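Morning F.,

Quick status update on the modeling queue. The single chain you submitted on Monday has been processed. Sequence for confirmation:
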Amino acid sequence: MTQATDETLWHAPHLLLQKFPGPAFVSTTQVCLSPANEGDRTGLIVFGFDYAWVGLRKDAAGLQLVLVRCLAANQGGREEEMFSAPYTGDSVQLRVTVQPGVDCAFAWSADGAYFRAIPHSFRARSSAWVGAKIGLFATGVAATVRCGHADFDWFRMSAPSAHAS
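Structure tokens below.
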């Protein structure tokens, strides 16, 4: 089931991004979300004219592990929630594996030893100037008194062969 929202990250100034380091790579990070409000969210993002991110979001039921995509973000596209599951921890490792042809597969791990694949893939799409990018973000609800925060312990890039089974 997908859920669309009007708020996107297309114009967000607080994305920490870098261009893809090569045609195939794995990017992994560990993040801890300390939300203060419903709607606080953080994650690992593949960004271009289309984008997708995997991460944590606070809603009325608690923390959710989510995969969100936005097609045609540069033309007013809307975010769609592609995957959602309750998450009981506050820290998670997030991973995206990018294969030649810019096919992206997302995964997550609570312990860093076993990564669980998220059953939706994403095809990265270039954006202006430097092509598709990979990065991190944390965002909250505007005009609130209390603010949450996200702590990223590390962000690593490696070759796909380093993660083969």
